[in-house]
Amino acid sequence: MRVLRALGDGRVIARRNLIGLRRTPGALVTGIAQPILFVLILAFVFGGALGGDQYREFLIGGILAQTLTFNSSFTAVYLAKDLQSGLIDRFRALPMSRVGVILGRTVSDLATSAISVLVILVCGLAIGWRPTSGIGSILLTCALLMLFAFAVSWVGALIALTARSVEVAQSVGLLWLFPVCFVSGAFVSADMLPSALQAIARWNPVTAVATAARDGFGNSAPAGFVAPGGWPAEHPALYATLCCITLIAVFAPMAVMRYRSIGRR
What we know:
By secondary structure, the chain is mainly alpha-helical. Helix content is 79%, strand content 0%. It has one domain. The protein contains 13 helices and no strands. The longest helix has 29 residues, at 98-126.
């Protein structure tokens, strides 16, 4: 009964957030412009030194993983905005599920992530990237990307509920993203990084998602790239799925507990 109530309340909150997104389309500018800029800069400014046209195929998987990780900052900022404006206080005054309020936020933010994925794929096609796998593999890869976006959005929710102000949530929500995204195999092979960082990069969920996306789309690394070793590199889709489940299992309960503790103040 509680699960059904949480799902129902989450659907209502998600619908409210999506209506707000439709009325303020300017909020999507960052989600659209940021991945385009990264694709163009990495493909044309650095791509020549890293493998040229072949690197562009390798790049798209990394851009997808990085962008979806960065999109968790949208959850942090908009949930913090609702807290700061007092909207969450009104929700708490209603007979609503505590889980449903946060679930609605994380589910509605999947719309931004889906648009980002579409923009990246179109931009990739424009610069010469091509998927070479079957339609089934492509659809499964997109489903994995959405699962990852949903998982990292719970990290953003916990940051928002801890910070409780838009400015702090925005700062903290971006601070952890850079080391997580760049100490990874998103843009180069994990085994091309300094030895002290290789183990971190190999087991980084961003690496797993980027590698799984490349495998799912049928893209290969440029000639001369060192092939990463280890279990995560050999089973990227499985490891990425396990990472997503772990992130949800850890951060969702923490976010709900934090929400409840705020309500008792």
